[in-house]
Design a protein that fits this description.
8-stranded mixed sheet; 6-stranded mixed sheet; 14 strands; 37% helix; binds adenosine-5'-triphosphate; binds magnesium ion
């Protein structure tokens, strides 16, 4: 069907009462941002139940682009018909259905404008009769190959065959902000995507250990974030110098506690930066059981340094599921590029899978980490990716 209007549905977010107006405005500006290059090609109408995009000319890859906007439950590629006279609708329905592939059909009408002189069933029947008379199509009400949907509204009738599933979730920023811990691995970009999809706006923190890790790691992170720019056009990446802290950890740690202490320091730094930025949650790519530092005992010991909510979108994901998403959002190829990880630069004896908080405190007493952490926050550098 040659469509001239996109009907955007909100799904989950339409249940959100008072916040709804704010959500619709956010979704509208997300869509506009996403289609910025084509702003003269369409006009937007906001309604309480849908957003409409009236197309003035074709927008290349429009369906793919709309699938990248969070907060959109589904959208339909519709033909808007101003003249709702039933004979006119019959004629257009017949012309359009003849162009479709399939042997069976069903007409499904929603009469939203209650002043329209026919009820839905009558409209369905009248239109189906014309199609049956003039084509070889058969009706199948349960499993039709062609579903012709018609919505009668006060500004016209909308006819469509195709409804596309959107990204779902909430519009960008509608749920607030979180500080995401970004490594160069596969997991953290996927966790970021899942949060962005839920309407959480992210700032990123990375712990860098030059000269043990090279500046190439930063280019890699920027490449990853450029892929995530699709969902969030402007991204702040805070790079925290971590070398001194790591060296001190390795000077003072008991065997097997290095990773635990290192992660406790990461959480402390993340909290300090988050507070400074007025952000009230921290997130990361941890997945329960994936590595030694991610056993539940270990997470408990690491998490004990902060009262901040730590959001772990991948907590229950298998690596194979994570990789699948990473490929879908184009971060996989960048993530598997070799890089030096700050966790792998010092030789680590078998990490403890059940580290004790009391042992951590004994190690941490041995050096003035608080000063080091504050220094690191002061020397943190911001990179903006857009
Ligand atoms: P990833 O694939 O995201 O690197 P991982 O499976 O390798 O995860 P870890 O290295 O234990 O697991 O890291 C767990 C999480 O901690 C990461 O997903 C990331 O959120 C955070 N993290 C690890 N290293 C860093 C770092 N250098 N800077 C910032 N965050 C980090
Ligand atoms: Mg890693």
């Amino acid at each position: 069907m040659e469509f001239n209007t996109i009907i955007v549905r909100f799904g989950e977010m339409s249940t959100k009462g008072k916040n709804k107006k704010d959500f619709i405005n956010r979704l509208a500006s997300s869509i506009n941002n996403h289609l910025k290059e084509y702003e003269s090609s369409y006009e937007m109408r906001k309604r309480h139940d849908h957003i409409y995009l009236d197309l003035k000319e074709e927008i290349p890859d429009l369906v793919e682009k709309l699938k990248e906007v969070s907060g959109m439950y589904s959208f339909s590629l519709a033909k808007k018909i101003e003249d709702c006279d039933l004979d006119n609708l019959k004629e257009i329905a017949l012309t359009e259905i003849k162009k479709e592939n399939g042997k069976t059909f069903k007409v499904k009408t929603r009469r939203i404008d209650k002043s329209y002189p026919y009820v839905s069933d009558e409209i369905n029947r009248e239109i189906a009769t014309v199609i049956l008379k003039n084509t070889s199509l058969k009706v199948d009400v349960h499993n039709p190959e062609i579903l012709l949907s018609i919505e009668i509204r006060d500004d016209g009738a909308y006819m469509f065959f195709e409804t596309v599933k959107g990204m779902g979730g909430y519009p960008k920023g509608a749920i607030g902000r979180s500080l995401m811990m970004l490594s160069g691995g596969i997991d953290s970009p996927v966790a970021s995507y899942l949060l962005m999809k839920r309407g959480v706006e992210l700032s990123f923190i990375h712990f860098a250990s030059p000269p043990y890790t090279s500046v190439a790691v930063l280019y890699k992170l920027e490449d990853i974030l450029r892929e995530l720019n699709v969902y969030q056009p402007k991204i702040n990446l805070y790079v925290v110098p971590f070398t001194k802290i790591q060296e001190e950890i390795y000077n003072h740690s008991f065997e097997g506690y290095e990773v635990t202490i290192m992660r406790r320091m990461m959480y402390r730094l993340a909290e300090k930066l988050a507070k400074k930025l007025h952000i009230y949650a921290i997130s990361n790519g941890e997945s329960v059981g994936q590595v030694a530092s991610q056993t539940l005992e270990s997470l408990n010991t690491i998490n004990a340094v902060t009262n901040y909510p730590i959001i772990r979108p991948l907590a229950t994901y298998d690596k194979t599921e994570i990789i699948k998403i990473a490929k879908d959002i184009n971060t996989y190829e960048v993530s598997i590029r070799p890089y030096e990880d700050c966790c792998t630069i010092f030789p680590i004896k078998k990490p403890k899978t059940m580290p004790k908080i009391s042992e951590c405190l004994k190690i941490e007493e041995k050096f003035d980490y608080e000063t080091l952490l504050n220094e690191a926050i002061e020397k943190t550098e911001l990179r903006v990716i857009k």
